[in-house]
Design a protein that fits this description.
With 553 residues, the chain is an alpha/beta fold. The protein folds into 3 domains: 8-255, Rossmann fold, CATH 3.40.50; 258-339 and 465-553, Glutamyl-trna Synthetase, Domain 2 (Glutamyl-tRNA Synthetase, domain 2, Orthogonal Bundle), CATH 1.10.1160.10; 348-387 and 389-456, Ribosomal Protein L25, Chain P (Beta Barrel). The structure holds adenosine-5'-triphosphate and magnesium ion (2 copies). A motif ('KMSKS' region) lies at residues 264-268.
């Protein structure tokens, strides 16, 4: 049968179901370490794990891989749960590797009893030196032949807190000559007198990743344990523990990490960006974190769509961030109301001299030409309107379809106007345009017979609400900052944030106060979202993405 539509993991799952393995059961897990906020790379793993379970009638656990007390925190646990839910997924069980500490300890004793684990007093430097290099066998530790009784006694005393950090470790006896360095008697327990965010001071020895992860999978009877490619060399050890302990045979499968252009994706680097103040926090809209891109205005559906489109690869690759931007544009184009906002520190005031001062009309403007059901809104119009300074040129080049002296444009949803006079201050700066409007040209009932090439957006001066607009761009100016040796300072895009003043339609502010405003399109300017920094007096908008790919030019 043709299985070209399945990714390689789905093919494995379908084979397992067909062969009756685990009676067709599919149980995955998403195993974050709570030492930072989730990023878009994690979103890929979440979509994959939850997506597989959904597709094959299975279940997915959310398991916190919290075996390193020093770097972990409940703040991260809470943010992770929030982000997974926001992406649209619901877990079967909320579990913690730390809940298995006693069981893991018992597994370790079982290995000691089988003669497969020993307490080693070597320093970490000595252990590293014993391991040697992949091309030559390692050296055996002088502690490797301790008796079972001795090992059991020392291990119990490690647990009891008799030794300081680093004094002893528990290692497993696998193969010091293996070309796979992971198998050269890896450490499975170390002493760490540290407070754990869940177990407090109950433990002063903690299991290493390799001794916690696979066993946790097995305890939960996970059928397909999906992880990223750097764990390929860990797989033999994963299988070895399962075999030696004779426990449920979870299997590990590896896929390529998601890397995105113009950003970094490791929690360590993201944390550094936060700590060094290059961004305002984990949820800075320039961050590739779920919290950051949510605040930027991305939707859960756009991120799921992106994860679908990139698919599941077996080789590491670098995905163009333009694809992520494409996904959000596709969605917002269909769903967002259009509104008018003039984004300008010094917008240009246009005075319509033949329109009575104090007169006001309400224009009805469609919310979204892509969505007939989206209706219309009221937009007040008056004698004085703001336009973008860019929409006027005193000496226009050819094919300039916006406003110039003697030229005509349509004010979107309102009238055709003509520029009669340019007013300047003593420095020569244009302060005002004097215009006249064509009364018969009102949108929807235009009988003027005049055809104009350009339509520009505007905001009525007496009705305009001042807002702050944050124009975000790529955080880094190099395509692959993770592969660049230079310091952040040299790699960051100096113009990744530009803050401008804007004047917006009053309807937008009413919607924002009522809480009904989510994503909007500022006509001709891009997609925006209201930011949490807004106050009732001064809304703040974040630009999610421009209307077109400005970088493709
Ligand atoms: P980081 O290096 O960013 O800290 P991590 O792998 O240490 O990532 P974990 O919290 O351990 O972070 O990851 C939880 C799960 O998400 C793991 O299964 C991991 O393989 C997966 N994951 C992490 N980063 C990516 C990525 N860039 N692409 C796909 N999956 C990822
Ligand atoms: Mg990890
Ligand atoms: Mg990490």
């Amino acid at each position: 049968t043709d299985r070209g539509h399945l990714n390689f993991i789905e093919q494995i799952v379908e084979d397992d179901i067909a062969s009756g393995k685990h009676r067709g059961r599919v149980h995955t897990r998403f195993p974050p370490e709570p030492n930072g906020y989730l990023h878009i790379g994690h979103a890929k793993s979440i979509c994959l794990n939850f997506g597989l379970a959904d597709k094959y009638g299975g279940k997915t656990n959310l398991r916190f891989d919290d075996t390193n007390p020093v770097t972990e925190d409940t703040e991260y646990v809470d943010s992770i749960k929030n982000d997974v839910r926001w992406l649209g997924f619901d877990w079967e069980n909320e579990l913690y590797a730390s809940d298995y500490f006693e069981q893991l300890y018992q597994f370790a004793e079982a290995l000691i009893l089988k003669g497969l684990a020993y307490v080693d007093d070597s320093t970490s430097e000595e252990i590293a030196a014993q391991k040697g290099t992949p091309t030559e066998p390692g050296r055996l530790s002088i502690y490797r032949d301790r008796s079972v009784d001795e090992n059991l006694d020392f291990f119990r005393r490690m647990r009891a807190g008799e030794y300081p950090d680093g004094a002893k470790v528990l290692r497993v006896k696998v193969d010091m000559a293996s070309p796979n360095m992971q198998l050269r008697d890896p450490i499975i327990y170390r002493i760490k007198h540290a407070h754990h965010h869940r177990t407090g001071n109950t433990w002063c020895i903690y299991p290493m990743y390799d001794f916690a992860h696979g066993q946790s999978d097995s305890i939960e009877q996970i059928t397909h344990s999906l992880c990223t490619l750097e764990f390929v060399p860990h797989r033999p050890l994963y299988d070895w523990f399962i075999e030696q302990l004779n426990i449920f045979p979870s299997r590990q499968y590896e896929f390529a990490r998601l890397n995105l252009t113009y950003t970094v994706m490791s929690k360590r680097k993201l944390k550094k960006l936060v700590e060094e103040g290059h961004v305002t926090g984990w949820d800075d809209p320039r961050m590739p974190t779920i919290a950051g891109i949510r605040r930027r205005g991305y939707t859960p559906a756009s991120i799921r769509d992106f994860c679908d489109r990139i698919g599941v690869a077996r080789r590491d690759n670098l995905i163009d961030v333009g694809l992520l931007e494409f996904c959000i544009r596709e969605e917002l184009n269909k769903t967002t109301p259009r509104v008018m906002a003039v984004l300008d520190e010094k917008p240009l005031k246009l005075v319509i001299t033949n329109y009575d001062e104090g007169r006001e009309e309400i224009m009805r403007i469609e919310n979204n030409p892509e969505d007939a059901s989206s209706g219309e809104r009221d937009v007040p119009f008056s004698r004085d309107v703001y336009i973008e300074r860019d929409d006027f040129m005193e000496v226009p080049p050819k094919k300039f379809f916006r406003l110039f002296p003697g030229g005509m444009v349509r004010l979107k949803g309102a009238y055709i106007i003509k520029c009669d006079e340019v007013i300047k201050d003593e420095t020569g700066e244009i302060t005002e345009l004097r215009c006249s409007y064509i009364p018969e040209s009102r949108s929807g009932s235009d009988t003027s017979g005049i055809n104009v090439k350009g339509t520009i957006h505007w905001v009525s001066v007496p009705h305009a609400v001042e807002a702050e607009v944050r124009l975000y761009d790529r955080l880094f100016s190099v395509e692959n900052p993770a592969a660049d040796e230079r310091d952040f300072q040299e790699l960051l895009n100096p113009t990744s944030l530009e803050v401008v003043r804007a004047f917006v339609e009053p309807a937008l502010v009413d919607a924002s106060r009522s809480g009904s405003l989510t994503n909007v399109q500022f006509m001709r300017k891009g997609y925006f979202i209201l930011d949490a920094d807004s106050t009732p007096e001064r809304p703040v908008f974040n630009r999610t993405v421009t209307l077109k790919d400005a970088w493709a030019k």
